[in-house]
Design brief:
The chain has 5 helices and 5 strands, in the order H-E-H-E-H-H-E-E-E-H. The longest helix has 26 residues.
Length: 166
């Protein structure tokens, strides 16, 4: 699996220079973000670790996510993503956190759609949550890789935004 090296280098450089850390909670990307962060230069200086909680019961048990209401699609809701980001940051005691939840296959629980929610938290506050939707015929691995690259690009943008506001 190849990631855009310049993107990985940029994120690494920023976090090392800022002396800040990051942790990850994944569902739909199933470890792809953790893999990307482990490939970054100087990863041990800022990457505290991550976890994959693929099913709703594991998100509830490990990440203290509230069970969704009847209108939510099996835990793939905005609030779930936000809660995952906040709670993984607490678990790993990191400045930044990234979370993903959603579907890479069109199944009944997803309304036969392929989509992901992702959230970024910074110092105990959710600063971004977005939903990505892909064509239902997108292959699962392609969806996961697309989500991962897109989220890394958005994370770079948020790092820049925070740097400007300092």
């Amino acid at each position: 699996m190849n990631f855009q090296q310049n993107l990985l280098d940029y994120i690494s450089h920023f976090l090392v220079a800022a002396d800040e850390s990051v942790s990850i909670a994944e569902s739909v990307t199933s470890g792809c973000l953790q893999l990307a962060f482990s490939q970054m230069p100087d990863a041990p200086l800022f990457y505290k670790g991550g976890m994959t909680a693929y099913t709703l019961p594991e998100k509830v048990r490990l990440l203290k996510v509230s069970r969704p209401g009847p209108d939510d699609l099996d835990g793939a809701a905005e609030a779930i993503s936000q809660s995952m980001a906040l709670n993984v940051a607490k678990l790993f005691e990191s400045d930044w956190s990234i979370s993903t939840t959603g579907y890479c296959n069109p199944i009944i629980n997803s309304g036969y759609k392929v989509f992901a929610y992702f959230s970024f938290a910074y110092k105990g506050e959710v600063i971004l949550t977005k939903k990505l939707e892909l064509h239902p015929k997108t292959q699962a691995l392609n969806a996961q890789l697309y989500y991962t690259e897109f989220i890394l690009g958005c994370f770079k943008s948020e790092l820049n935004r925070v740097l400007i506001l300092r």
